[in-house]
Amino acid sequence: MNIIKHGLVVLGMIAAPVFAAGQVSISIDAGKPGPVINKNVYGQFAENLGTGVYQGMWVGPKSNIPNTRGWRNDVVGALKELHVPLVRWPGGCFADTYHWRDGVGPQDTRPSNVNGGEVEVINAVGTHEFFDLIDMLGADAYVNGNVGTGSVQEMSDWVEYMTADGGSPLARLRAQNGREKPFKVAYFGIGNELWGCGGNLKPEYYANLYSNYETFLRAPKHNKPKIIASGGDTTWTDVLSRELKGRTTGISIHQYTIAGATWETKGAALGFKEGEWISTLANTLKMDQIIKDHGAILDKNDPEKKIGLMIDEWGTWYADADASSSALYQQNSLRDALVAALSFHIFHEHAERVPMTTIAQMVNVLQAMILTDKEKMVLTPTYYTFQMYVPFQDAKTLPLAIKDNTSYTLGATTIPGVSATAARAKDGKLYLALVNTDPHQPVDVAVDVAGTKVKGAAGKVLTSAAMDAHNTFQYPQAIKPAPFSARAAGGKLSIKVPAKAVMVVALVE
Ligand code: AHR
Question: Residues 156-171, buried b or exposed e (16+ Cβ, 10 A)?
């Protein structure tokens, strides 16, 4: 017997809506490709913080946990599936206390020091080990230098150590330490959050400092990193984009998503009510206006679009499960999957101005791809979202219009029901990604591609019964993507997107 309960017909274990789902129309213009989504938009951040690097990724060559030269095989294997294009390291705030010489040379001669009073930084992971990791991942390097407690000389030496050809004393030291060939540093950041943990500076003062540091970052012409200035709010973007014209490839900003209205009262990763579901998603959508605000300043100061807006820290930041810890470990649920997907849609929208983002962070810290506990590892819903969106790396955006969109309202908050993005990928296929933010109602989406008769769609969908569905070491497969396909009928393609879901499909043209 079917029972009507809270507007749902409960059919045994499956709940189907009694209300007719809304019909949303999506039109894609495949004939007018827009800017390319730089693959680095799917970058990652690995800070020496909590167990993000040590334990989470690095266990050392002598560990019983299977590893390659110290890096966990399970974690590296899983990350490879994400085609990680770029990794930012070693911080974050940590970067402004990091002295690179502590992390080169024989392991047993490297000093030990303590960061944040919590995790012993054994300096086992230094420059060579980091490049070993990114070589295994096939990723590019984004190295962040130390302004806060470093010096121009120290930063200049590090860049020379990494990039110089033979003939320089630092290139010889590098060779002595096991690496003859220069490393390739795709991006080099001059400091981090200079308005805060990087030194509590004013933007004008940092702009001067930046010029001083940047002048002495000498790398051979054929191996020059792109240099990133560390920004802050729009005032910082204004000052830096005026003062550093021609001296910077990008200005970074950090934008975290909280659950709830204020940082002090922010909600937890799990066990939240619907109010924190909608507030988290509404807060995520603020990224669009933030990019527009910074973009407008850049358009004024850099109309040639030579300066990128690098969002090199983003993602959810929940109330600490363990308030006494500074490790920033948090669980990751279906809600995080939607946060990631909605953020991608916004980044695609601004593909021209946003060539790079790195989510905070890769393993065990904040909105992580992977959680580990000793020898165990679980993949998070955010991991699966990154995996589903791989085809969007270096894909060409396609104009997309949504008509008759649903909206999702709770209390005083209303957000769009459906969010979508489309692109022509390098494999030639047209990919469509869809998010249904409503945690109760599925939605029917009619898809139309101008000039083409779409025959169907096939891909993956990520959803679950609970808003905070998540994977644990005990139940590592509680939530994972399921295959999805739909066929056009009478020349029309209609896709039913479940409630609270992320979907990526390739359209069959
Ligand atoms: O990602 C965690 C921290 O958040 C970073 O170290 C810092 O840059 C930011 O405030």
Answer: bbbbbbbbbeeebebb
Known catalytic residue: 313? yes
Q: Spot the catalytic one: 47, 129, 276, 313.
A: 313
**Using a 6 Å cutoff on CB, does residue 360 contact ligand 1?**
yes
Asked if residue 116 has pLDDT above 70, the reply is no
- 7-11, 124-128, 340-344: which range is least confident on average? 7-11
Q: Is 476 exposed, middle or buried (0-12, 13-18, 19+ CB in 10 A)?
A: middle
* Residue in this structure with the two tokens 């029309």, named with its chain if needed: 492
Q: What is the DSSP string of 221-250?
A: GGGPPEEEEE--SHHHHHHHHHHTTTT-SE
φ/ψ of 414, rounded to 5, equals -130, 135
Distance CA 116, CA 107 (A): 22
How confident is the model over 2-53, as pLDDT tens digits? Answer: 332 232 322 223 233 333 345 899 999 999 999 999 999 999 999 999 999 9
pTM of the model: 0.94
- Nearest atom, ligand 1, residue 94 CA: 6
Quick one: which atom of ligand 1 is closest to the CA of 45?
A: 1
Q: Which of 390, 427, 292, 300 is nearest to 347 (CA)?
A: 292
